[in-house]
Design brief:
232 residues, alpha/beta, two-stranded antiparallel ribbon, 5 helices
Length: 232
Amino acid sequence: MCGNSMSAPLPAIVPAARKATAAVIFLHGLGDTGHGWAEGFAGIRIPHVKYICPHAPTMPVSLNMRMSMPSWFDIYGLNPDANEDEAGIKRASENIKALIDQEVKNGIPSHRILLGGFSQGGALSLYTALTTQQKLAGVVALSCWLPLRKSFPQASASCPNKDMHVLQCHGDADPVVPFMFGSQTAEKLKSLVNPANITFKSYHGLPHSACPEEMVDVKRFIEKQLPAISDE
């Protein structure tokens, strides 16, 4: 299969049912691919929205005894004090910004592009949205955290997304990325963007995964941030 600049297969795509006037770029979690999320979005698709679910490149992951698996960047630990792969996070973020630029070239303005992700992918989507010069429609951040959080607010000083809407979702029984890590991330985000635009939703009994109720909330958020435009 042809590769792209991320040395990974081309993204899984759910095309719009009619002319695409908006896009969602959604990043999977550690060890996963974009295929499952593409299937999930196909089930809640909105006719004018194109869904792009890229696949992370394969690399050794320190957290998992250096086993090679799809990963956006290396992870040393999943707690607030763990060291972080700063160079890898920034490199991955640049690749996502290039993906956004590609969609802009395809005719979808960046303010009609919503970024999202689950776990490691959600972390990368938050970091990218807060450090890009591209004005985005918002972020869907599922079961995740804000990487390199100590680099903020300086890292987002010139970012145009200070008024963007963020939907952050987290299961209160998550054994992988603790719920407290998610709620602390929401509080940090409120200091970086308009706090009125941050929505943090918890799901009772949900482990480190998604659930139908959460996907309905995600669809509603996307519909609100990426409404149909009158000439469609």
